[in-house]
């Protein structure tokens, strides 16, 4: 019953999306004022119905209704409740339903709360949202129905991929999808503005919170995903340049560029065409990301079902939306009035440089990700791995960091190089000091880690510089947001550089009681014993670890065996200290009765995720700051009007 | 003012990306890793013997003027047991077969050969898979056809089935 209710809600939502599109066209073509009013109500109800369908799916999963094909294929009645709940989107159909649910709710929020835009632009935006939603409803209803029934119902389900049985899964896909969908709203705003030829600061201010929100979610999603891969896959790495990781990185890069260019448009009325272009690119990257994950076109650690039909469907949507938007761009942007100009040596100039560098990195990642397909077209089989990505994007990213450090210290419109040199003195000194210090203390490491450490120090100093000589209590919240986000990048960079330069690794076979050493830790295997979990059994090693004079502590890495479906995973055990992490993995038992142990000491690796969190917090402060200021301005205008 | 045609450039770039993706989508998914070494001379190697009375293997052994098969196997590999009868058939047909044993020990290989037959003239021991990787082999079993001058002319990935035998014999004949 629940499943049928959900399916009905989905059909109604799809019908309303069609109506929303129709109303939009009527309002814009014929100038129907009623249609322009009705479209808001329709958008709100459409969002509500999509959410209702999602709730119905979650309820079916919680009830373990095995007569629903999706539940039978992906769940199991013995699973802990959290994974039943999260299992609703831990599969293809459910995750696509989550996609449209967030899309519908975002459209509803635009319809309900957006008051800054001219009415025609808002109507065009809502119509564009409806067109996107309609495509995904069709995809769900015709190619991946989450509510399909099985007859006869199996006695129990097949279970969930054990790698995904992790609390992180409950939040990872919703976070990334919120990011993707936020970019779809930015895209719809851009299409709306192109349709009405109204690309200006008002449009940018309406778009900014969505871009910022999407960017915060993408940052969180990437950070959390990276930590998940780090401790769950048991390889000790935090970024693998896997196609699916790239799929989340590319929209983030585009969103970062868009975030900065939309700020120029909102405050200085510059970069009109570029901002529209980036909004289209950012959303196309999220669609390509969805496509990469869902079509299985590239081999990845995220081994999702391979299904060319679904791939074709998403590809068709991609062609329709992005192709359409780019055609509209080509036809229309020439007729949009040019924005204000600026000198190259200025805050705007540095933001343009930042944008170009981000775009170049995006291009490299895109080419690297799809190059295996291009090569296959010419009959060569290859895969593109970390050496390519690190050596190409690394140096450009370092240049980007340098520009990023200088940018906020420049004035808008134009600036004087001599004065800027004075402002850059402190960051430069910090960079030189840190780089030289690392070189002297750390011994011979590569050039890139040293440069990374130097730039991280310089960027950290430069990031807080805008707060110098300001009244800290009067400084606007969004300025704090920028400072913290930039500081976060410095922290991430420091974590990457330090851990890549000074990580130590030991792979050793030990008998019970034998000591193994890594860095200044001594690890002793006390024994291995079987343990039992709710739906798994495991061999658990007990490791006694000592470090110098510190109190000894115990780590318990596991090899876990799941029965539904049959798989094993390595559960690493990690000890976090202020200066890094000890990462331990239990391997196989050798013929001689000794166990393989893999130990890593990763100095300051935690900074990578701490920095990611700082970046997101900075984004949140900036979002709150802008919204609060606009709220106050509106209040003041209303009071004056009174 | 920007030239008008430039504004259509993004659409064209997008078209190229889509064309690539669409092409890739309709390629049959072939996840076999083929060696880039086919058509090239064997990399230089010298592997120690694993069993008493059975010589080790060096790349010079393949430059004696007659084509040979090079079988990459391991005693712990189940498909290697499956292909053992076919290797015995090839041996009976007069094909010289050499082997590289991957991550293996003498007692294990002795047991394996006793149970499944011994088709090998020489066995080199590659404990760390170094030579295997240099050959461009990604797993066991794999079989390479080497001509009389030490050039790799063909690669067979996976276990040799009965209907693969004529093809291998043909490849050996062509390499003559």
Characteristics:
heterodimer; A: 642 residues; alpha+beta; six-stranded antiparallel β-sheet; four-stranded antiparallel β-sheet; globular; B: 176 residues; alpha/beta; Glutaredoxin; five-stranded mixed β-sheet
Structure description:
The complex is a heterodimer of chains A (642) and B (176). With 642 residues, chain A is of the alpha+beta class. Among the domains of chain A are: 1-165, no CATH class; 424-502 and 608-621 and 628-641, no CATH class; 504-603. Chain A has helices at residues 2-30, 33-62, 69-74, 81-87, 92-113, 119-143, 167-196, 201-232, 243-268, 272-295, 308-332, 347-377, 386-406, 417-423, 425-442, 447-464, 477-502, 606-641, and strands at 504-510, 515-518, 521-532, 536-547, 553-555, 558-562, 567-571, 573-577, 580-589, 595-603. In chain A, strands 2, 3, 4, 5, 6 and 7 form a six-stranded antiparallel sheet that branches. Chain A has a four-stranded antiparallel sheet with strand order 1-10-9-8, with helices on one face. The radius of gyration of chain A is 26 Å and the shape is globular. The termini of chain A are far apart. Mean pLDDT of chain A is 87; it is low at 301-305. Chain B contains five helices and seven strands, in the order H-E-E-E-H-E-H-E-H-E-E-H. In chain B, strand 3 (68-73), helix 2 and strand 4 form a beta-alpha-beta unit. Chain B is elongated. Classes of the chains: A alpha+beta (642), B alpha/beta (176). At the A-B interface, helix 10, helix 11 and helix 12 of A face helix 1 of B.
């Amino acid at each position: 019953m629940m499943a049928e209710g959900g399916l009905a809600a989905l059909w109604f939502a799809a019908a309303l999306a069609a109506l929303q599109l129709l109303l939009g066209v009527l309002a814009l073509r014929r100038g129907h004022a009623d249609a322009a009013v009705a479209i808001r109500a329709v958008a709100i109800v459409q969002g509500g119905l999509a959410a209702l369908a999602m709730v119905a799916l979650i309820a079916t999963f919680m009830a373990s209704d095995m007569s629903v094909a999706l539940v039978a294929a992906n769940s199991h009645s013995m699973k802990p409740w959290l994974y039943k709940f999260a299992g609703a989107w831990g599969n293809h159909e459910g995750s696509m339903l989550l996609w449209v649910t967030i899309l519908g709710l975002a459209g509803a929020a635009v319809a309900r709360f957006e008051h800054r835009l001219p009415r025609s632009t808002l109507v065009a935006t809502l119509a564009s949202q409806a067109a996107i939603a309609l495509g995904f409803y069709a995809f769900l209803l015709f190619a991946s129905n989450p509510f399909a029934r099985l007859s006869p119902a199996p006695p129990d389900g097949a279970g969930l991929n054990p790698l995904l049985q992790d609390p992180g899964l409950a939040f990872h896909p919703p976070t990334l999808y919120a990011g993707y969908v936020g970019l779809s709203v930015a895209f719809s705003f851009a299409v709306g503005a192109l349709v009405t030829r109204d690309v200006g600061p008002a449009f940018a201010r309406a778009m900014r919170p969505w871009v910022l929100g999407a960017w915060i979610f993408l940052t969180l999603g990437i950070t959390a995903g990276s930590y998940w891969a780090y401790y769950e896959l048991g390889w000790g790495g935090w970024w693998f340049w896997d196609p699916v990781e790239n799929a989340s990185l590319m929209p983030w890069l585009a969103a970062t560029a868009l975030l900065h260019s939309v700020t120029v448009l909102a405050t200085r009325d510059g970069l009109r065409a570029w901002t529209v272009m980036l909004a289209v690119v950012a959303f196309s990257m999220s669609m390509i990301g969805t496509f990469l994950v869902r079509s299985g076109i590239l081999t990845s650690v995220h081994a999702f079902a391979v299904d060319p039909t679904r791939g074709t469907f998403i590809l068709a949507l991609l062609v329709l939306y992005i192709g359409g938007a780019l055609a509209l761009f080509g036809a229309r942007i020439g007729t949009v009035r040019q924005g204000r100009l600026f000198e190259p040596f200025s805050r705007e100039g540095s933001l343009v440089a930042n944008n170009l560098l981000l775009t170049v990195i995006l291009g490299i990642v895109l080419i690297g990700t799809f190059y295996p397909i291009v090569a296959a077209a010419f009959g060569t089989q290859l895969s593109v791995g970390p050496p390519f990505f690190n050596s190409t994007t690394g140096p450009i990213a370092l240049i980007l960091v340098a520009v990023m450090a200088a940018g906020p210290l420049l004035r808008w419109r134009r600036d004087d190089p001599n004065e800027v040199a004075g402002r850059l003195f402190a960051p430069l000194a910090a960079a030189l000091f840190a780089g030289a210090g690392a070189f002297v203390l750390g011994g011979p490491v590569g050039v890139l880690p040293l440069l990374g450490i130097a730039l991280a120090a310089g960027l950290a100093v430069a990031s807080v510089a805008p707060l110098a000589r300001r009244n800290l209590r009067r400084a606007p919240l969004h300025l704090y947001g920028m400072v913290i986000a930039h500081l976060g990048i410095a922290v991430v960079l420091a974590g990457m550089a330090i851990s890549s330069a000074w990580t130590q690794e030991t792979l050793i076979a030990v008998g019970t009681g034998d000591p193994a050493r890594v860095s200044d830790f001594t690890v002793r295997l006390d024994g291995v014993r079987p343990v039992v979990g709710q739906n798994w059994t495991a061999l658990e090693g007990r490791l006694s670890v000592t470090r110098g004079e510190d109190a000894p502590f115990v780590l318990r890495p596991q090899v876990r065996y799941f029965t539904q479906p049959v798989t094993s995973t390595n559960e690493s055990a990690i000890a976090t200290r202020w200066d890094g992490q000890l990462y331990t993995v239990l391997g196989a038992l050798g013929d001689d009765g000794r166990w393989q142990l893999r130990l890593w000491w990763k100095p300051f690796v935690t900074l990578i995720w701490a920095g990611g969190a700082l970046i997101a917090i900075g984004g949140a402060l900036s979002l709150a700051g802008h919204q609060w200021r606009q709220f106050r301005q509106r209040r003041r205008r209303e009071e004056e009007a009174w | 003012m920007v030239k008008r045609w430039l504004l259509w450039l993004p659409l064209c770039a997008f078209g190229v990306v889509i064309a690539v993706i669409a092409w890739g989508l309709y390629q049959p998914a072939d996840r076999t890793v083929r060696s880039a070494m086919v058509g090239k001379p064997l990399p230089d190697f010298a592997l120690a013997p694993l069993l008493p009375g059975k010589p080790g293997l060096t790349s010079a052994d393949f430059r004696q003027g007659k084509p040979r098969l090079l079988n990459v196997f391991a005693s712990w590999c189940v498909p290697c047991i499956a292909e053992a009868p076919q290797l015995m058939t090839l041996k009976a047909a007069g094909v010289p077969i050499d082997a590289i044993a991957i991550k293996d020990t003498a007692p294990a290989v002795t047991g394996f050969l006793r149970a499944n037959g011994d088709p090998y003239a020489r066995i080199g021991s590659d404990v760390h898979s170094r030579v295997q990787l240099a050959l461009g082999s990604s797993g066991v079993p794999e079989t390479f056809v080497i001509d009389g001058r030490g050039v790799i002319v063909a690669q067979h990935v996976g276990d040799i089935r009965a209907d693969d035998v004529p093809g291998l014999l043909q490849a050996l004949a062509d390499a003559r």
